[in-house]
Amino acid sequence: MMAAMTRGAATASAVVAGLCLAASVPPWGWWPLAFVGVALLDVLLDGATAKERFRCTALVAAAWLYPATFWMIDLTLPGYVLAGAIYAVLYGLGGMLVPPGRGRLLALPAVIVLLELVRWSVPFGGVPLATLPMGQVAGPFAPTVRVGGGLLLTALVVAGGMALAALYRRDLRIAGALAGVLVLSLAVAAVAPRAEAVGAVRFAVAQGGGEQRTRFNPCNAPQVFARQLEATALVTEPVDVVLWPENVVNTEPEGTERSCGDLLYPSEASATLAELAGELDAVVLPGWFREDEEDPSANLNYTESVEPDGTVSGRYDKVRTVPFGEFVPLRGLVERFSGELPARDVRPGTGPAVLVTSQGTFGVSISWEIFFEHRARDAARDGGEVLLNPTNGSSYWLSIVQTQQVASSRLRALETDRWVLQAAPTGFSAVVTPDGDVVDRIGIGEQGAMVADVERRSGQTLATRLGFWPMAVAASAALAAAWVLARPRATR
Q1: Burial classification of residue 340, based on how many CB atoms lie within 10 Å of its CB (0-12 exposed, 13-18 middle, 19 or more buried)
Q2: In sequence order, what DSSP letters do the residues of 158-171 get, joined into one string?
Q3: Which of 173, 287, 309, 383 is most enclosed, with most CB atoms within 10 A?
Q4: Handedness of CA 186, 470, 415, 22 (dihedral sign)
């Protein structure tokens, strides 16, 4: 098919394909366009040379990822340009691995699955933003993540796109076979094991509100803390647990000279939180950010559980920290080119991803961690009955990151078959059911509080039991088989 196109037509088609993929993910979320984008890519790869496959696939990736990660331009223009270029080249190389003939039927889904797995894992722990599964969380195949996680959903998106391309070629046999795979996947998801309810708990999620796109300033910390108290005061009915966002409790080292007026010491903040828990007769889950007093070269980012009697029953330190935001890779080199870097890295936690409280055991994925399915999987395996996502997106431009984070919370809810509660200081805060439905949400910049009766759930889905390995192995085997099929019959 590629041979019948002019270079200009192929370039335009590749760009349109990438834009369709971009439009399928939040904040746009037009999920059917992902299938159109993949169909165009499949048509472009049909009969193409290795050089043409590289060029077209790289263009598709660039047109997909540059718009869908446009928010990065506000933080680092060079980083935005470089990241998009790196991933475009990566996908271009992956396109070269797809044979142009009939082996493509196996190879294209396999390559996209493996490329997404790589992108979610490296560099610096991975950048799982603007992923294909995010765009499908409102689509009909979303429940399949309970079986094979986001990688299975990725494979099904590619299979659906290739089915459209087969219809375009009037190859009804291939289109029917791919449609059968999609129907079978839904049938398996419908009977796959799920968690079960073991109790209920009434949660309040408080969002302090305030202006979006603000950079961190320690002198603003008292105001952020005060807004959280104001939002919590909006809870007028009895609740069992109150969830606060990430790092809204920001203090300076005990006994040092106050650098900013009302900036609290840890002991003062702890006393206020203990008093709040007693007044509400509820467990309060605040998000802390402060200097590590035992190691002043590091910061701490954690959520703790404060019981109604004022005692702290548990603490979870963030494990997956944000590159260039909470830690600086290659700091000695990078600091020569940028002056807007955190002075101290956040020390990652090492404990299990849960908080054990008097109201139940809650899994925790702090902010960035919700984008990584293995963090939610660890929380479910560690006994988490409800998944919590305290986060802070107040510094981000536009609503791209925030909407993609809500989509990720919905995916984690489906994968683990747990309720997910997301709390952000300036939005979005959300309540998500195990079926991935958002039943309540507080908008960006608003101050408010949500109350929800939430099931505590126990048990594992196939996705939490098996992880990504089955899909990674299946994709690798499919790619190898594709190249065997691509060899001339006499050679085989």
Answers
A1: exposed
A2: HHHHHHHHHHHHT-
A3: 287
A4: negative
* Contact call for residues 387 and 360 (beta carbons, < 8 A): no
- Contact in structure between 492 and 109 (CB atoms under 8 Å): no
Please report, for the chain, how many H helices and E strands are present, in that order: 15, 15
Number of Cβ within a 10 Å radius of residue 90: 17
pLDDT in tens, 409-457: 999 999 999 999 999 999 899 999 999 999 999 999 999 999 999 999 9
Q: 303-336, pLDDT tens digit by residue?
A: 999 999 999 999 999 999 988 778 877 666 666 6
User: Tens digits of per-residue pLDDT, 277-291?
Assistant: 999 999 999 999 999
With b meaning 16 or more CB within 10 Å and e meaning fewer, what string describes 130-154?
bbbbbbbbbbebbbbbbbbbbbbbb
Which letter does DSSP use for residue 143 in this model?
A: G
Report DSSP state, residue 142: G
- Bridge partners of 31, per DSSP, are none
Contacts of 208 (CB under 8 A, 6+ apart): 224, 226, 227, 228, 230, 231, 245, 248, 425, 426, 447
- Of 429, 406, 428, 351, residue with least CA distance to 384: 351
List C-alpha distances in Å: 244 to 112, 249, 254, 378: 37, 9, 23, 22
DSSP states of 229-294: HHHHTT--S--SEEE--TT-EE---TTSPPSSTTPPPHHHHHHHHHHHHHHHTSEEEPEEEEE-TT
CB 45 within 8 A of CB 97: no
pTM: 0.94
- 327: which DSSP letter? B
Give whole-number Cα distances, 357 to 133, 230, 246, 312, 412, in Å. 33, 24, 18, 9, 22
For residue 324, what pLDDT is reported?
77
- Write out the two tokens for 375: 């963090």
* Band of residue 15 on the pLDDT scale cut at 50, 70, 90: very high
What residues contact residue 428 under an 8 Å CB cut-off, 6+ apart?
393, 402, 403, 405, 406, 422, 441, 442, 443, 444
Report the alpha-carbon distance of residue 126 to residue 93 in Å, rounded.
18
